[in-house]
Specification:
Elements: H1 2-16, H2 39-53, H3 89-98, H4 104-117, H5 121-126, H6 129-136, H7 142-160, H8 173-180, H9 188-198, H10 208-217, H11 226-236, H12 239-255
Helix pairs in contact: 2-12, 3-4, 3-9, 6-7, 8-9, 10-12
Length: about 290
């Protein structure tokens, strides 16, 4: 009950500060001469994608009360879910680690296989690395990911006495970033995903789809790398739109022929057809390459 009250208090504070996007770690402008995206651009693009796709069902379980998108006839989401209460923060972090460089289907299979082979995290910690690798091999990069998981659990036991990350729920965004980035093999994108999906904070992970689409939209400079894009977009995008936009960009990037990851970087400017809801927002330039 106490944790639930703290979580609700943080959500209320977030809702009251939707126009204050920066945290102390984002206080310096990454691209001070790049004024995009504006708040209105973010809202317009969110609404266009929401009208086209409805809210993505795969992300519905991560929604909280202040994240509910506006009503939409295309949305097939059922009643609002406050949190994914069955998932611990450590579960969320490991599942995010397993999703790296693989499909969602394979990552999900790897996580289910891991939990089936080792019912609790103490069992994973006690297991031989080869056994962990065997359990998660369907997700790819099993050796690297098993080592990362093992290091994470070992470090947690040394620091906290047990493999548990629930203490992160009571930390600020900056504190969570500092804490998780201190573990070997955990980078900013993984941390951002844990913040947004599993801690229900206002953060904006930048994956391949988000990076490509926001660059196409002109929201980040063409010269930007993913790390700078993350800092810039987190500062510019209103907190109350971050979750919606992120989920919709990821979904759109997978489904749209023009915006999908598989499209060659040297795309024709005419490949963005009228069926793409972003066609009116993407500027036509002489260079349409994404690197």
């Amino acid at each position: 009950m106490q944790r639930s009250r703290k979580r609700k208090q943080r959500q209320e504070e977030s809702c009251n500060n939707n126009n204050n996007n920066s945290t102390s770690s984002d206080s310096v402008e990454t691209f001070p001469s790049h004024p995009r995206p504006t708040h209105q651009e973010c809202r317009s693009v969110r609404d266009a994608l929401l009208d086209f796709h409805g809210f993505p069902q795969e992300f519905a379980k991560y929604r909280t009360g202040n994240r509910a998108p506006p009503p939409n006839p295309n949305s097939v989401v059922e009643t609002e879910t406050e949190t994914d209460t069955e998932t611990t923060v450590l579960d969320g972090l490991v599942s995010t680690l397993l999703s790296q460089n693989t499909t969602e289907v394979n990552a999900s299979r790897a996580f289910v296989s891991l939990k089936s082979a080792f019912p609790n995290w103490e069992d994973v910690l006690a297991a031989e690395s080869k056994c962990i690798e065997s359990a998660i091999k369907c997700g790819g990069l099993a050796t690297t990911k098993a080592s990362c998981i093992k290091n994470l659990l070992t470090s947690l036991v040394k620091k906290k006495g047990k493999p548990c990350l629930e203490y992160l729920r009571d930390m600020t965004i900056d504190e969570v970033k500092q804490e998780l980035c201190g573990f070997k093999g955990i980078g900013p994108k993984t941390v951002a995903c844990v913040l947004m999906f599993h801690l229900h904070r206002d953060d904006f992970p930048v994956d391949t789809h988000v990076f490509r689409i926001t660059k196409d939209l002109g929201w980040i400079p063409a010269s930007s790398d993913r790390e700078k894009a993350y800092l810039h977009l987190n500062r510019r995008i209103p907190n109350d739109l971050k979750f919606d936009l992120n989920c919709l960009f990821v979904t759109h990037g997978k489904l749209c022929d023009r915006c999908a990851k598989k499209i060659n970087s040297k795309r024709s400017k005419t490949s963005c057809t009228q069926s793409c809801p972003l066609s009116t927002y993407i500027p036509i330039t002489d260079s349409d390459d994404i690197t």
